[in-house]
Design goal:
The chain is mainly alpha-helical. The protein has eight helices and no strands. The longest helix has 29 residues.
């Protein structure tokens, strides 16, 4: 396998910086000059890698989604090894107390959903694919008895609960919202005999 070129590595640095920045400050808070500075590059080199700011934002959303999915997958694997059902691993990981303050590293859907309607078609398209991917992932771990719209409803609960909890803050009130949402989803849909499993600290 060939090594990435210098240009490819530079583009990756820009996208990585932008992926953090969009979750930290929202799309409106992401300027080309700031991203290039964060990546340790000069502003003038931007257009060697992207045709526009929106092209960078779309790539950043893709990267943020991949990073978040990989991080969630690692934590879910640990919960599965401890005996959680696939659905419980998903819900307990996504709505964990540790996900609450990690805006810059966490799910880009929760961080950016309210801004999506005002973005370019390319950026909205990437975000829509991330939402569809999350719904499909939840669908795969639901019991057969769950209705056809259950996965979308669960994703709405997960994302909405995390957004509301972050509004309240990384405190008892915010964590209470996450706990209530966890209980609601798992009491309704987790039918693998673990309803009485104690909730461990997150």
């Amino acid at each position: 396998m060939s090594q990435p070129s210098r240009k490819e590595l530079t583009r990756e640095r820009i996208v990585t910086a932008a992926a953090r920045a969009i979750r930290r400050g929202g799309y409106a808070g992401v300027g080309v000059a700031d991203i290039m500075k964060e990546a340790g590059l000069t502003h003038g080199g931007f257009y060697a890698h992207f045709d526009s700011r929106d092209a960078m934002l779309a790539a950043a959303m893709e990267q943020a989604g991949r990073d978040s999915s990989a991080r969630l997958a690692r934590r879910m694997a640990g919960r599965r090894a401890d005996g959680d059902s696939p659905l419980r691993a998903w819900v307990e990981t996504y709505l964990s107390d540790t996900h609450l303050p990690r805006l810059e590293e966490g799910c880009p859907i929760a961080a950016l959903a309210s801004e999506m309607p005002r973005q370019s078609p390319d950026v909205r398209g990437v975000a829509a694919r991330r939402v569809s991917t999350m719904i499909e992932a939840i669908q795969q771990v639901l019991p057969a008895s769950a209705g056809s719209h259950a996965a979308a409803a669960i994703v709405s609960t997960l994302v909405g609960a995390l957004q509301l909890a972050r509004t309240l803050g990384d405190n008892a009130e915010g964590r209470a919202v996450l706990a209530a949402a966890r209980r609601s989803v798992l009491d309704q849909y987790d039918h693998e005999g673990q309803d009485n499993k104690p909730h461990l600290p997150h």
